[in-house]
Amino acid sequence: MSKLTIAQAAMRIGVTASKLSRMETGKHPQKCDEVAGLLGVYGVTGEDRRHVLELTQIANRPGLWRSNTFSYAQRVATLKLLESQAIRLINFESELIPGLLQTVPYIQALMRHVGRLDDEDEIGERVASRVHRQAILRKPGAPIALESKGRFTGFGSPTDLG
Fold first, then answer.
1. How far apart, in whole angstroms, are the C-alpha atoms of residue 54 and residue 34?
2. CB within 8 A of 56, min separation 6: which ones?
3. Closest of 136, 141, 137 to residue 84, by C-alpha
4. Tens of pLDDT along 14-60?
5. 102 touches 127 (CB < 8 A)
6. Residues 6+ positions from 114 with CB-CB distance below 8 Å
């Protein structure tokens, strides 16, 4: 098969080039019929085709990415894995200091006062996991951009804020 441009592949499955670009970069949800069309265009057949279509169906299940059936430790492990493989991280928190930038005293105060946790072991586990996640910022070339448009209302003591 000859190499296709995005515009040529998009035309063959009946979508715009910009939509196909967003699909391929994960900025647009995948529809099984569009993925099936792309697999045909790209010449993917047999078991590989079946596997990709199955993954597309699984990824489109409602609530897949919001499941609370996993423990806190399992959710953090998944988050750390995804962050370690990401090419770009975007974090939005409307009123709090982003988790990747929080100090230990701030995290402890956050867990006690906002998270309403009183189990010191659980607080310690969450603090350790958040601090461990911050290693992503120490990678060579890790880009950091901060923007703040809100106001901080605060909780805890001034020393908690680091």
1. 13
2. 30, 31, 32, 35
3. 136
4. 999 998 888 887 777 788 899 999 999 989 999 999 998 988 888 77
5. no
6. 96, 155
As a whole number of angstroms, the distance between CA 91 and CA 136 comes to 13
Give the whole-angstrom CA distance, residue 38 versus residue 9.
7
User: Any idea which residue has 């975007």 for tokens?
Assistant: 90
Does residue 131 contact residue 104 with C-beta atoms inside 8 Å? yes
Which amino acid makes up residue 84? Answer: S
For the stretch 103-115, pLDDT in tens is 899 889 888 888 7
pLDDT score of 36: 92
State how far the Cα of 117 lies from the Cα of 134, in Å rounded to an integer: 22
